[in-house]
Design goal:
alpha+beta, 6 strands
């Protein structure tokens, strides 16, 4: 079993797909699917094109192979991102892994809308910046950060958040002149989500 605690479908390692043209458009433009953009989001923001996106979508959304992206962190909880390719129920599931536990815990999902628990900015950064040496896991801090970005559910972020996002986007191949546009749109869509009430407890707290 690739991910203990997740036996919904035929999961396969997906880390090698991160470098394929079309991946980041497929993954991040889904966050802009609520129609709130005046300017139409396009793959060119990420240095990709429609043909790249279409070709890779056939791989990412294959019902027979559900790509898994493992983001373990040294010295603390990590995360797992899974393309849930059930026929008629496509979505993305987000799991947390905890030191000392042999199984992963699902905390959120994306089905056109985000639902479930998420991470604060500081929790997201801690995981992104603490890669473990586990085999077949995402190592680079930029792709780790971008994979976790949809889990950001509290927009109490530092002034440097936009610059951090722009830097991550350029690292994965977004042109310098469009990375700021992409970052602005992604943060704006995250900001439009309902905020957790003050009693909300982070899934990293162990509660």
């Amino acid at each position: 079993m690739l991910i203990k605690g997740y036996d919904v479908g035929p999961v396969v390692p997906g880390e090698s797909l991160l470098g394929h043209p079309g991946f980041w458009s497929n993954y991040l433009l889904a966050m802009c699917s609520d129609g709130g953009c005046v300017e139409r989001p396009v793959p060119e923001w990420f240095g990709e094109d429609g043909a790249d996106v279409d070709a890779l979508s056939e791989v990412l959304f294959d019902p027979e192979h559900w790509p898994v992206f493992r983001v373990p962190a040294a010295g603390g909880p990590g995360a797992v991102v899974i393309y849930r390719n059930l026929d008629g129920d496509y979505g993305t599931d987000y799991l947390l892994t905890h030191p000392g536990r042999s199984y992963a815990e699902q905390i959120a999902s994306w089905d056109g809308d985000f639902s479930g628990a998420g991470l604060t900015w500081h929790e997201l950064i801690r995981i992104a910046d603490s890669p473990s040496l586990a085999d077949e896991s995402v190592q680079g801090t930029a792709p780790r950060f971008l994979l976790l970005l949809p889990l950001l559910t509290n927009l109490d972020v530092p002034e440097t958040a936009s610059a951090r996002l722009i830097a991550a986007l350029t690292t994965i191949g977004a042109p310098q002149d469009t990375a700021s546009t992409a970052a602005e749109h992604l943060l704006a869509h995250l900001a439009r989500r309902p905020w957790h009430d003050p009693a909300w407890t982070s899934p990293l707290s162990g509660s």
